[in-house]
Design a protein that fits this description.
269 residues; alpha+beta; 24% helix; binds zinc ion
């Protein structure tokens, strides 16, 4: 599933091709995504792209008269085509640009979304979201205040979009391991120092992953293959039964809120 680093890498990949260029029209081959593709996108004509931004895992394409909001869902991907390329089964949407490029959206499972808003500040899918993890609004003091009365485990707390966006299961596991904190610890039990360390590690794990994505950006204008997603350097996620890279003890796994959770009993307290 595309996580925040992949979405940010996608944003950086498409931005230079889109900004300042004009969408001539769209081709929507299948409008049945998670929600129906917004009518404004079906009938888009001659609109210039002003900016390409990201909020949580949503890509935001700013046009003269509104915003296209894209969510990649479970299996969505976007890529830039520089020459005509026949659409295949799962290529649901094309945006055709006046400079000869096409932005193509592919999504085998169709859990993604293409929505529209005239006003980003009053957009229902974005209005409940917590701060961006890489912004200064997400800091030790903020997380401490949000966690200090919560009896739930710290891991689902980090994965709650109302608290902070974009910390998916992989990144929650990895940053808790880097912080030597057991994922099952009640959120309120974390000390200020632990929270401070955790915030630093969340930012570092995400930043590192975004930078890795940068090395695969050439894929955004290849016409075949899976674009943009990259192998993570993982220390704990998916490593059940393997020795911990720090201490050699075997990594264990449990479910918290149905999500796979990995930890080293020796390193994490
Ligand atoms: Zn260990």
């Amino acid at each position: 599933m595309p996580e925040l680093p992949e979405v940010e890498a996608s944003r950086r990949g498409i931005e230079p091709y889109l900004v300042g260029n004009k969408i001539e029209y769209s081709i929507v081959r299948n409008s049945k995504l998670r929600w129906p593709v917004a009518p404004e996108i079906l009938y888009i004509t001659n609109q210039s792209v002003i900016s390409v931004k990201r909020r949580a895992k949503y890509l935001l394409i700013q046009l003269q008269h509104g915003w296209i909001i894209i969510h990649l869902g479970m299996s969505g991907s976007i890529r830039i085509l520089t020459k005509e390329q026949l659409a295949e089964k799962h290529d649901h949407i094309d945006l055709i640009f006046s400079n000869g490029i096409t932005l193509r959206y592919t999504d085998p499972r169709r859990f993604g979304a293409w929505l529209w808003t005239d006003d980003l500040n009053n957009c229902s899918v974005l209005s409940h979201l917590g701060p961006e993890p890489l912004s200064i609004d997400f800091n030790a003091n903020y997380l401490y205040q949000r966690a200090k009365n919560k009896k739930i485990a710290i891991k689902p707390c980090l994965m709650d979009n109302k608290i902070v966006v974009g910390v998916g299961n992989i990144y929650a596991n990895e940053s808790l391991f880097a912080s030597k904190i057991m994922p099952t610890r009640a959120a309120y039990s974390l000390t200020k120092k632990e929270i401070s360390n955790l915030v630093i590690n969340i930012k570092q794990v995400l930043q590192c992953s975004i930078e890795r994505g940068g090395t695969t950006l050439k894929d955004f204008f290849q016409s075949d293959g899976e674009p943009g997603y990259f192998a993570q350097q993982l220390f704990i996620y998916g490593k059940k039964g393997k020795p911990c890279l720090h201490c050699g003890q075997l990594i264990q796994s449990i479910k918290i809120g149905q999500r796979s959770t990995f930890f080293c009993h020796n390193c994490q307290k």
